[in-house]
Amino acid sequence: MDIKKATLVLEGGATRGVFTSGALDYLMEKDVYLSHVIGVSAGACNAVDYVSKQLGRTRDCMIPQDKSGNYYYGLRDFVKERSVMNMDLIFDKFPNETIPFDFDTYFNSEMKCELVATNCLTGKAEYMDDRHDKKRLMKICRASCSMPLLTPIVNVDHTPYLDGGLADSVPIRRAQEIGNDKIVVILTKNEGYRKKVVSPAMQRVYKRAYKSYPNLIRTIFRRSFEYNKTMNYLDQLEKRGEIFILRPQVKPVSRLEKNKETLFAFYEHGYHYMERRFDDLMKYLEK
How many Cβ atoms are within 10 Å of 130's Cβ, its own excluded? Predict the structure, then answer.
């Protein structure tokens, strides 16, 4: 396997991550691997499956084939667990039983991987990994994917974390710090997308929910500004040919899409769009 010296940045977006999994599955079929990977939220799940070289695993996790793989809670369980998703199923039963994660390949990989989570105490992004402890690695993934209000806070090493996208949705600056000349970014929303500011009503909800974490609240309120600034910066870098961006060319699925056919179609879009852009990507990586 020829590992190309480049950094791969993977945006999150909950079930929109099936677009990314399709794109990465095509790269894995072509045996194309980049030396550094940074994954945020659903992008963290894609990142670890890419480093462990498990073609199709993220797709199979995100698109359940039967009721045993349905990770959405009903109303009763949502009230009990305070989560819209069965996070134990996704980050414990799936990797250890139902859809086994190849920990050995991941732990021994030459590729560097960072999973982004937001520290609730500081409100800042942290870039984490573990190449020894299976439980801790899955806990980091879980923290990176824990959406505010919809899933519980996750404690890693006695520190509370939430979704990495709150503090660093698309960590292009982190990628630049790594120092590779080539950076590939896979986004899960269309060109031109920008986030809206948090409404006053939702601000009140966040303040009540996270009153113990004032820095986290500030980060959540600033998220749209930081995200939009990052998108503008990415557009500039792309126009100058300094980075390679792959983004959906069709309307993305909803963030919590449940329909299998809809999700698979978006997965297929990611796969075939990477196929169409593959020669352009190789030219970019090799020039």
Answer: 18
SS (H, E, C) 247-266: CCCCCCCCCCCCCHHHHHHH
Classified as helix, coil or strand, 285 is helix
Q: How far is CA 28 from the centre of its chain?
A: 18
Strand-pair partners of 72? 85
pTM of the model: 0.95
Q: pLDDT averaged over consecutive 10-residue blocks of the chain (287 residues)?
A: 92 96 98 98 98 97 78 65 80 94 98 98 98 98 95 96 98 97 97 96 97 98 97 98 98 91 97 98 95
Query: How many degrees, rounded to 5, is the angle at CA 90 between CA 80 and CA 219?
Result: 75
Strand, helix or coil at 155?
A: strand
SS3 9: strand
